[in-house]
Every structure is written in C-alpha cells, then in structure tokens.
Design a protein that fits this description.
It is elongated, with a radius of gyration of 30 Å. The strands form 4 sheets. A 5-stranded parallel sheet has the order 4-5-8-3-9, with helices on both faces. By secondary structure, the chain is an alpha/beta fold. It has 2 domains: 3-101 and 164-269 and 292-398, Rossmann fold (3-Layer(aba) Sandwich); 403-483, Arc Repressor Mutant, subunit A (Orthogonal Bundle), CATH 1.10.10. Helices cover 53% and strands 12% of the residues. It has 19 helices and 13 strands. The protein has helices at residues 3-8, 16-22, 24-37, 41-56, 86-93, 95-135, 140-155, 173-183, 205-213, 242-245, 254-258, 287-309, 321-336, 348-369, 377-398, 403-420, 428-434, 444-454, 480-483, and strands at 60-63, 69-71, 75-79, 167-169, 185-190, 217-221, 224-229, 233-240, 265-268, 315-317, 425-427, 459-462, 468-471. Strand 12 (459-462) and strand 13 (468-471) form a beta hairpin.
Length: 487
C-alpha cells in the first residue's frame, strides 16, 4: 500500500516478543494478562504502565538529556468499547497498590481514633488551665506559672494523622486536588472515565497540566482555605468508551485540547478482541504476573519507608551518553515532523510533549527492571516504540485524515476482496457500481480512486474496446494483450 494511505492506516498491535525480550518483568506480565484475559494487548500494557507510574512516582525523577529534572508520572487514557475487560485488567495490575491502600486506610482509621482520644484529653487539660487562669486573680507568680503551662500545652497540640491514600477511583479532578494537598502523591484511576471529561471536572485542567509538569499549584476557593500544592506527583489512568471520548476530539473539546491537556497523555485506542476470545487460547499460569506483583511490592515498601522518614530526596534517573545522543536524534525527528506535510503538522501540541513522555516511559522501565546505572539505548528504543503507537492513536482520534483518504482506505478494502476472489483486471464502471454508497455522489469515488492510483495501489489502462480499466496487481508485469493497450 502507498505511503500516504499507509500513514493513515491502522498499524495493529505491537510485537509483544520485543518487550518480553528486553523488559521481561513488565513484558511477560503484559503478555500473560493479554493471553489470560484476552483483552487488547495495549490495554494490558496501559495497566502495567499505570501501576509502574503509581508505585514509583514518589521515589524518582528523570533528568532529561538537556538537564531539566521532571516527574516520571504518566497520564494515560484508554479508549475501548464496553466489554473489552478494561476494569478487569486495571484491577489486576493495580492489585498490590490497592492492597496497600486498604492497609493504609485501616492504619489511618486506627491513628484517627487515637488522635481523637488524645485531642479530648488535650482539650480537657486546656480547659482546666483556662479556668485556673480566670481564677488566678492578681498573684503574679501564679499567673506566670499558669501561662507557662498553657504555652507548653499549646505547643503539644496533637497532630491530626495524614491520610496516606495512593489510589483515588472515580472522583472528580477537583476532589483529586484536595486529596493531593493532603497527601502529595496520588493516582487518579477510572475504568469508566466519564466523570473525568464532564464540564465541571475540566475546570481543573490547568492545575492538572501543572501537576504533570511538576509545578506548584495554587487554587483559590470561596469560603475555604486556598490549596497550595508543591512537589506533588499524580498519575492519571482513565478508560473511556469511544462515544464518551468523541466530543473531546471535536469542536466541544477544542478548548481543552487548546490548553495542551490531551497532548500530555499517552493515548491508547486498540482494536477490539471481542469475537476472538476463545477459551482454547487461554493459559492457566500466572507466574509472570506474580513476579510483577513482587517487584511492585518492593517499590511500594521503599515508598512507604520514604514517607515514614520524611523529606527524602527523589532518586535522579539519568540517560547514558549513548541514550542521550539517541534521544536528541529522536527529538529532532519529532521537531521536523511538525513542518508542513510532516506527521505532526496538525498536532504540534502532542509533538511538543512526546520527547518528554518517551523519557518518562524509559525512566519507568529502567527503574522497574533495575537496569543498571543509567537508561540504555535499548530501553529508550522500547519506550519510543510504545509512545509511537500512542502517537498513531492520538493522530487517528484528533487529526482525522481528509475525506478522500478515508474513502480511499474504504475503497481499498473492496479492491482487496475483489482481488481475493481471483480478479486482477476490472472495468472502472464495475468498481464504481460496487463502491460504498456514500462515495457514489459528489465525485467522492473518483477522488478516492485518484488517491489509490497516485499511491500505486492500482494502475489504470484502456482495453482493446477503449474501456477504462484497472489493474489490481500493479507490481506484476502486464500480459501481452493488455500491454499493447494505452496506459
């Protein structure tokens, strides 16, 4: 198929073997989830990346090749039909993080009960001293003694225990900001992400953009103390059905896209596996997912210790010299693709964040797989492949191809069926009569046909009776009789 149509054509699923070979802990777990749940492979990959980002984001940052230090937190959006097992996959990969959350919640409730008891005792003692102060009269010595006791008591007011929740499900982004103000780290997860894209929720979009970049966030609130969130880390993993996400790609969503919000996301819009999920393809082994869980537990244990100790500096993940040089080459290619006619001509917002997203994914893979001192070229290449698939999906959703390209793709499907039936030479009128109904008016069929001819998918000729004909196998030599016709 020609280059222009190929640029707009579905690439299909990535090769799981490549990820398994170079990044076995994540790769094998994703492959096993894909095999056992028979959910789309890239939805399983999204589940794995979300868990990595959620677990590690408080422990490390990545130092970009040009020196800036940025979070390793990811924002992910998966678009898939109902019944694709989105929730099942998300629950499986987030299993250990949610188990820790349950423990933290029990611990928090226990600490809260202790705090309330201590607070009652403290308030009782404070009341006693206030009464003594009121009765002390003019005895300076007694006044001084009571004031000193009150000062000491006020300095020992019990501190309300901080909630240490990691995962927030199906809450609005504004409620997420409130939580981050308290905890400093969190993961916003929604397997039915409609709540994330409603009108009110996206009042928080500028703040979510700032959090992605690692910047300070200040939110003024009527009748409440303002929020001042600094050095926080937020992972976002939302699943949406196509009909819920569609308004984001049209006129209604222009304001949100214009803010650069969707450009920060890794967009995953895989082909459905429904209708192919046969029981014979399932396996009963879970050892790779169990190994994934063990590594996530190790990382969470570190994160919990860092929280107890407090004010721990995040680890700085750096690129090797070779990987840094390779990243610059990638960044240059992305930049050049913004030029007219380039892949990102109509998606410069996405292109501007793509290099950093590649670095974040590379840093997460490096950290999770414990791959030595610095990010290697191999790890960078795996991250670039993952992000390239997401780029394709972003472009398909936000930068749909022109009408004649869409029509050419549909017409080419019909040509493939005719070819599969054993036909090589057909008259143009034969194809016109059988083309999709929408292409039969307004010259759409002829514009689509011109695209296919220009791209070399087919070629035209005039037969002995002067009829306009098409050769569906243009790479093969023409038979003698046809060759004498006018091409």
């Amino acid at each position: 198929m020609g280059g222009l149509i190929m640029a707009y054509h579905m690439k299909g699923e990535p090769n799981p073997a490549a990820l398994c070979q170079s990044k076995p802990l994540l790769g094998e777990a994703v492959r096993q989830a894909h095999q056992n749940y028979q959910a789309p492979y890239r939805l399983c990959l999204m589940g794995g990346l979300a868990a990595l980002s959620s677990a590690a984001q408080s422990l490390a940052d990545v130092v970009m090749p040009y020196g800036a230090k940025v979070p390793i937190s990811l924002s992910l959006v998966g678009i898939a039909l109902s019944g694709e097992r989105k929730s099942t996959v998300e629950r499986r990969f987030m299993k250990e993080i949610k188990a820790l959350d349950d423990n933290l919640e029990e611990e928090h409730n226990s600490n809260l009960a202790d705090y309330k008891v201590k607070m009652l005792e403290w308030k009782g003692r404070k009341k006693q001293l206030e009464k003594q102060l009121a009765k002390s009269g003019s005895d300076d010595h007694e006044l001084t003694s009571i004031r000193e006791a009150l000062r000491e008591l006020l300095a020992t007011e019990p501190t309300k225990p901080q909630r240490a929740k990691l995962v927030y499900e199906d809450i609005s982004p504004m409620a997420m900001l409130n939580a981050l103000n308290e905890t400093g780290v969190g993961t916003l997860v929604s397997s039915e992400g409609g709540i994330i894209v409603d009108g009110k929720s996206f009042d928080a979009v500028p703040h979510l953009n700032s959090l992605w970049s690692g910047d300070k966030v200040s939110v003024a609130r009527v009748g409440k103390p303002s929020l001042n969130i600094s050095n926080a880390r937020l992972t976002v993993s939302i699943m949406l059905q196509p009909e819920i996400f569609k308004p984001q790609t049209g006129k209604k969503g222009e304001k949100i896209r214009g803010s650069g919000h969707w450009a920060r996301y890794l967009v995953i819009n895989p082909e459905s596996t429904q209708g192919t999920r046969l029981s014979t393809r399932q396996a009963n082994s879970w050892e790779h997912l169990d190994a994934f869980d063990r590594r996530i537990r190790e990382i969470l244990s570190k994160a919990r210790m860092a929280r107890i100790v407090g004010d721990v500096e995040r680890e700085e993940i750096r690129f090797s010299e070779e990987a840094a040089a390779a990243w610059y080459k990638l960044a240059d290619r992305i930049e050049e693709a913004i030029l007219p006619g380039g892949q990102f001509e109509h998606a410069s917002d996405h292109a501007s964040k793509l290099g950093e997203n590649i670095a974040r994914v590379a840093a997460l893979l490096h950290y999770f797989e414990e791959d030595g001192d610095a990010i290697s070229v191999e790890t960078l290449n795996v991250a670039a492949d993952i992000c390239a698939e997401c780029s394709d999906d972003f472009l398909k959703l936000f930068v749909p191809p022109p009408e004649e390209i869409r029509d050419a793709i549909e017409l080419n499907k019909l040509i493939n069926r005719i070819r599969d039936d054993g036909w090589r030479f057909i008259r143009k009128t034969y194809l016109h009569k059988r083309c999709p109904n929408a292409q039969r008016t307004g010259g759409r069929f002829f514009r689509a046909l011109d695209v296919l001819l220009r791209e070399g998918v087919i070629r035209s000729y005039v037969d002995m009776s002067n009829a306009q004909c098409l050769d569906l196998c243009p790479l093969l030599p023409l038979p003698w009789g046809v060759q004498n016709g006018h091409h």
